Amino acid sequence: MKTAFFRLLLIASLFSLGTVAARAEDLGAVKARMSQRLADLDQFKAQGAIGENNRGLVELRQASPAAGDIAAGENRDREIVYAALAQQTGSSAETVGRARAKQIAAGSAAGVWLQSESGEWSKK
User: Fold this and answer.
1) Which residues share a beta bridge with 123?
2) What are the tens digits of pLDDT across the range 43-70?
3) 109 Cβ contact partners less than 8 Å away, ≥ 6 residues apart
4) pTM value?
5) What pLDDT shows up at residue 26?
6) Residue 97's closest CA among 109, 114, 118, 80?
7) Strands (DSSP E) along 6-107, which ranges?
8) Inter-helix orientation angle 65-89/2-16, to 10°
9) Backbone torsions φ then ψ of 121, nearest 5 degrees
10) Which of 26, 82, 17 has the alpha carbon at shortest distance from 55?
């Protein structure tokens, strides 16, 4: 899927810039966790339980303990990646996240809930 491609591209670019410890976290472990949860994340997005917000994070659209666990783990790891990229580029994690949100929205499958820059939610 395009989302997986963009996620792997983001992580690959992070590694190509050099090794950075973000929150004393091994970025290889972050990449592995993100890859392991990708199928579940995509399934919850296809079901409409999880959407992509305008800050590069996922949000629950329907209450579900399983979807909540996936969203929490994904957001923790995305924040680690965004912080590492921000440190390397002299930017802020918020700026990196907002730029990533645009990439995610462009590569998302039809039917995925997306939040616009103005905060409105709609299905792609």
Assistant:
1) 113
2) 999 999 999 999 999 999 998 999 999 9
3) 1, 2, 3, 42, 45, 46, 124
4) 0.80
5) 85
6) 80
7) 50-52, 58-60
8) 40
9) -100, 140
10) 82
